[in-house]
Amino acid sequence: MRAMVMERQGGALELRELPIPQPSAGELLLKVAACGICRTDLHVVDGELTEPKLPLIPGHQIVGVVEALGEGVAGFRPGDRVGVPWLGGTCGECDYCTSGRENLCDRALFTGYQKNGGFADYCTADSRFCFPLPAGYPDTQAAPLLCAGLIGYRSLRIAGPGKRLGIYGFGAAAHIVTQVATWQGREVYGFTRPGDTAGQAFAREMGACWAGGSFDAPPLPLDAAIIFAPAGELVPAALRAVGKGGIVVCGGIHMSDIPSFPYDILWGERSIVSVANLTRRDGEEFLKLAPQVPVRTEVHLFPLEQANEALAALREGRIRGAGVLVP
C-alpha cells in the first residue's frame, strides 16, 4: 500500500510503499476511502504534540470499508462502511473509563498519533472505537464529521444552552458547529483573523448572524464562546465578549500560552474550560444528530500524495471548510 509517513517531527511526510497491515485480535482492516485533515495533524507533524509513535502514518478522520476482521470482532462484517475517530483505544479500567470519562484515560491511544492513521490506502483500527456512518453522506463529506464534527459537538454541549454563541477560528469544526447551533435556535457570532473578509462571509453563509475580526466586540454580550483557533491570546478576547455567567470553551488539543489578563474580565462568574478528546457516546449522539440538521460539510479534496501541500494549506488558512485526503 501507499502511505504518507512521518519519520521525524518538523519534517515533510514521505510517500512510501508498505505492506498492508494485518488486523490483530479485536481490530478491523479498512480500505481507506477518505481521511480528513485536522489541525491536530498539524500539531503532530509540527512537533507541538510531543509523544508520537515514530515512524508514524498520521490521520484520524478516517472513512473506510471493512476488508477483514481480526479474531473476536463482533458487530461488523466485510463491506461495512465505518468511521475511525481520534480516540483509538482506552484501558477500560481506570476511574475515568469507569465513570463515563474515557476521553481522559491516562492510557488512551490516539489514531494518527500513537496508532497509525488514515494517510494511507489501508489501516487497522480497534473495532470497539469505530462508528457505523449515517447513510446519505458521501465518503469525503463524512470524513470531517469524525473529528471536526465530534469535538465541535462536545464543545457545543459543554458551552451550555445559551442563546448567543461566539465561535473563534472559523474552520472545519466551526462550520459544522454553526449549522448545529443555528438548527437549535441559537444566534452564532463568527470571529476570524482580522481582515479575513472571505472567512467572515463563509461564517455568514453557514448561518452566523454576525461575523468580524477576532478582537472585535460583538454587538451584544455573548452567553458562551468556543475557541477553535490555537491562539492563547483569544482567551482574554473571548472573556471580554461574554457577559456575566458566560463560559469560554477552549476546543483544541493544543494552544499557545494564554497571556495574563485582568481579573475583572473573569469576575462575574465567567469561566474557562478546556475540551479533551471525545467519548464514544459523543460519536454516537452526533452521528445520529448530523442527518437531522442536516449538517453539510464543505470540503477541499487532495490526493493522498499531496498530504504535505494539504497540511500547508491548512496551516496558512487557505482551506474553506475542511480538507480531505482521497487515496
Characterise the protein shown here.
One of its GO terms (cellular component) is cytoplasm. It is an enzyme of class 1 (oxidoreductase). It holds the Pfam family ADH_N. It is a single chain. This protein has 327 residues and is an alpha/beta fold. The protein folds into two domains: 2-137 and 297-326, Medium-chain alcohol dehydrogenases, catalytic domain (Quinone Oxidoreductase, Chain A, domain 1, Alpha-Beta Complex), CATH 3.90.180; 150-274, NAD(P)-binding Rossmann-like Domain (Rossmann fold). The chain has eight helices and 17 strands. The chain has helices at 39-46, 139-142, 148-158, 172-183, 197-206, 234-241, 280-289, 307-315; strands spanning 2-5, 14-17, 27-37, 61-69, 81-84, 87-89, 109-110, 122-126, 131-132, 164-168, 187-192, 210-213, 222-227, 242-250, 271-274, 299-303, 322-326. Strands 3, 4, 5, 8, 9, 16 and 17 form a seven-stranded mixed β-sheet that branches. Helix 3 crosses helix 4 (172-183) and helix 3 (148-158) crosses helix 7 (280-289). The longest helix is centred in the middle third of the chain and has 12 residues, at 172-183. The chain is globular. The mean pLDDT is 97.
